[in-house]
Amino acid sequence: MKKVIEVNGLYKFYRVGDSVVRALNGVDFTIHEGEFCAIVGTSGSGKSTLLNMLAGLEKPTRGEIIISGCHIEKMKENELVKFRRERVGFIFQSFHLLGTMNALENVALPLSFRGVPKSIRLKKADQMLNLVNLSKHKKHFPNQMSGGQQQRVGVARALVVDPDIIFADEPTGNLDSHTSEEVMHLMQKVVREQKKTLVMVTHDEHLASYADRIFHIMDGKIVRIEDNREIHKEEQQEKKKESEEKDHEKE
Amino acid sequence: MNLIDLLRMSSANLKRRKLRTFLTVLGVIIGTASIVVMISLGLGMQEAMYAQVEEYGGLTSIDVTGMNSYGGGYYFEDSEQSDPAKYLTDDTLEELKGISHIEAAVPRLTAEALLLKGKYQGWVTLIGLTPEGFAREKIELAEGSSLPDPKAGELQMVFGNGIITNMYDKNGGGGYWETGEYPDIDFMNDTVFYILDTDAYYQTQGNSGMMGENGEQVKPPKKHIVSASGMVDGTPDDYNMHYYDVYCDLETLKTMLKKEFRGKVIPGQPSTSSGKPYNYLVYSSVKVYVDELDNVDGVQEAIRALGYNTSSNIEYMESMKSQFAIIQAVLGGIGAVSLFVAAIGIANTMMMSIYERTKEIGVIKVLGCDLKNIKQMFLMEAAFIGLLGGVIGNVLSYLISFVINRIVSAEAILGVDGSISYIPPWLALASMGFAVLVGMAAGYFPALRAMRLSPLAAIRNE
């Protein structure tokens, strides 16, 4: 399988007053294409720092990050912006939709940064909103939508650029548990159907269990990697069986 | 990101905060309007000036006078060592014809004369012009008037409409300027006398001994009867450039002067070192008409190179122009202060807008918006404020200008026709361009700041 993310010996130190905080203290891992990974840890464990560095929002102190063959730790700011524009989708905790635009325009926004003509990008955005089951809310503005709906727009916005990787920073942090489950199901479905690589940061062990692999991070180090792929496969097969049985019963 | 998307985003942001945008634009409106109105006042004055100059002989004519001449007609012979004086003679006219771009060179000869009518007398300057000179001068004549006939055999005169104000009571009764009443003289029909040899007249009038300088008996000068061929159009209340002049035919005047001052030096004419007159008459000035305004300078140079003095309205215009430039700069500067204040307003608005949108800017950075595009977006917002202010400011300026012109007449202030406030199209365009430029300049540093905002700080969940 193709490697999408490769992290080697990643360190990040912050200077706070006279002391040095080791946010990341030697992290190595590899993520392959089509994987749904979760980075789990308590607050202060360094999980957000890791995600920010993967997305090129922060520079590492030492180490290398290779995404789709590019060393992003060496890039300048405008190169990083270009990199994100072309390869990365981002889902935020507090959605961050632009208040002046309706759902459709918000989804189309990243495409406008690429210079895609309006008619084409609105068409694509329309498809994406259908994918996230928001076909009835296309003309709604963010303040006319619930949190769950807004985050689904956020997911559509991340998907519309057809990215190599999607980063999600606590995507359900501002949602109630029921809506959180919905959004997680949606993300899981999208990753499987669209064959996308998704890296999610969360502090919630339960939500992390939706992921194929879970990186447990503590004090700037990956302490454990959980592999749920087999479990998920079994679950899926069970579900399949159940639905098949139901179909049989109906017949 | 293409231009239309950038424009769309910028205008959407301006629309989002309508009141704030309006207030900022209002500042620019006032700033632009004050600059435009101020400059328009200066331009109005300038326009009026141009109109006046045009009326007073245009810009394409040059007055040529001889060297060593003072006050347009009085020649002083210097000692032999100095440069020979350059007199305007018929040879001069030939010389001038050799210069290109000259359409015509018209000589004029002036002579002092005394008009007498009953108890009134008055000094006038007789100006002799050739028929071509008359044609060029474009004197507007009153009804029933005609130009002097060169073949009349007598000195026919055209009187300026203000000559009547020159006449005064020789017994001490005063003239128009003392009494406020015009003397009852009709130059066209009354019998008016004129005297050319005014020195002799005063010598015979002044003392009854009638002794001249050399102890000779001075003969009283000959009184001629005025033959008026016309009057300049207008009443004595309307001033024009022919107001105080009396025109006559040049050749006839020459003949008259030669006859009158036979063997003597004619006043205003040069004499040899021994005090004898020359055998030719020297012109007071030659008016040269140039074909194009652009050639006036060159022709003037050429004539100077020949050794003559020249003066033209263009020199006067040049000095006026620089004066008006100063006036306009001062007026514009006053206006610019308010536009400067408006620029600070724009900068402030943009700063506020960036603080408000810190998150939004961070998000679009994370989503991959080019840094250049972010800068452009904010610059466009600022430029749009400038443009809007500039356009509305200009509309306002035209309104103010219209009102000023309605209320205050230029005639009352400047004494000339025309509008006191004049906004040419270039001023409108330049001021709009300037407003946009000011907007962009004011928005530049805020835009740079927006571009440099860290996306991380922007998306932090707080």
Account of the protein in words:
The complex is a heterodimer of chains A (251) and B (462). With 251 residues, chain A is an alpha/beta fold. Chain A has one domain: Rossmann fold. Helices cover 41% and strands 27% of the residues of chain A. Chain A is built from eight helices and ten strands. Chain A has a six-stranded mixed beta sheet, sandwiched between helices. Chain A has a four-stranded antiparallel beta sheet with strand order 2-1-4-5, with helices on one face. In chain A, helix 3 (103-113) packs across helix 4 and helix 3 runs parallel beside helix 5. Chain B is of the alpha+beta class. Chain B has two domains: 3-54 and 320-459, no CATH class; 61-291, no CATH class. In chain B, 50% of the residues lie in helices and 15% in strands. Chain B has helices spanning 3-16, 18-55, 90-97, 131-137, 176-179, 198-206, 250-260, 296-305, 313-356, 358-366, 371-407, 410-414, 425-452, 455-459; strands spanning 61-65, 69-70, 74-75, 102-117, 120-129, 156-159, 168-169, 174-175, 193-195, 224-225, 227-231, 245-249, 285-290, 309-312. In chain B, the strands form two sheets. In chain B, strands 1, 4, 5, 6, 7, 8, 9, 10, 11, 12, 13 and 14 form a twelve-stranded mixed beta sheet that branches. In chain B, strands 2-3 form a two-stranded antiparallel ribbon. The longest helix of chain B has 44 residues, at 313-356. The model of chain B is unreliable at 69-83 and 208-212 (pLDDT under 50).
